Amino acid sequence: MMDGVATTLLIEPFTLDNMAYGCALGKELHAQGALSYIPFDESFNRALTAHKMHDPSWWLRLARTTDGGEYCGVMVGNVTSTLFSQRLIGYEQLLYVRKGTKYRGAIALNLVRNFLSWCYTIHGCIMVQSGDVAAINSLAVDALYRHAGFKRFGAIYAHEPYAGGEHVQ
């Protein structure tokens, strides 16, 4: 049940049959995000996705509800060790639920909770890190992560070779 309405949320791993939907949702996110000025390379994205969906250290999932049928959400993450320990940390790489989707927040929360479960139960991670690097709706993302049990942890910065039209040396 979502919001008291009987509907089923389906969270599915990427397969060769549904990979194009996941890539398309990722492209939608890219177009809205802070890095949209970098061209989206579809052939690179599909090749990388096809490789990562078979890598056991990567988690790629699509979401849809039975009342809508079409895929409306995607989440990608991975686990890796740090440079100082063999212990694993989970990292969210991409989370997107299409704007206007009924139960959007609940779908995003379910994706996050499934990723957390995979990180902790399957891989024994000591921590999971997520962040708002797309800068689309930072307040909503903050509320989502806090609702999922995350706490603020540091800050994110970006550096680019050009700032204000001048080359930075």
Largest sheet: 5 strands, mixed
**Gross CATH architecture:** 3-Layer(aba) Sandwich
Shape, principal axes of CA atoms: globular
| CATH topology title | Aminopeptidase
Any low-confidence stretches, pLDDT <50, length ≥5? Answer: none
Strand arrangement, largest sheet? 1-2-3-4-5
Give the C-alpha Rg: 17 Å
End-to-end Cα distance, whole Å, is 55 Å
Let me know the CATH homologous superfamily.
Gcn5-related N-acetyltransferase (GNAT)
Number of DSSP helical runs: 4
> In CATH, what is the class?
Alpha Beta
- Share of residues in strands: 15-25%
Number of strands: 7
Order of helices and strands: EHHEEEHEHEE
Short description:
The protein has 4 helices and 7 strands, in the order βααβββαβαββ. The chain has helices spanning 19-32, 42-52, 104-122, 138-147; strands spanning 9-13, 58-65, 73-81, 88-97, 127-129, 162-163, 166-167.
Structure explained in plain terms:
The chain is α+β, with helices and mostly antiparallel strands. The chain has one domain (9-152): Gcn5-related N-acetyltransferase (GNAT) (Aminopeptidase, 3-Layer(aba) Sandwich), CATH 3.40.630.30. Helices cover 32% and strands 23% of the residues. The chain has 4 helices and 7 strands; from the N terminus they run E-H-H-E-E-E-H-E-H-E-E. It has helices at residues 19-32, 42-52, 104-122, 138-147, and strands at residues 9-13, 58-65, 73-81, 88-97, 127-129, 162-163, 166-167. The strands form 2 sheets. The protein has a 5-stranded mixed sheet with strand order 1-2-3-4-5, sandwiched between helices. The protein has a two-stranded antiparallel ribbon with strand order 6-7. Strand 2 and strand 3 form a beta hairpin. Helix 1 (19-32) packs across helix 2 (42-52). The longest helix has 19 residues, at 104-122. It is globular, with a radius of gyration of 17 Å. It starts with 8 loop residues before the first strand and ends with a strand.
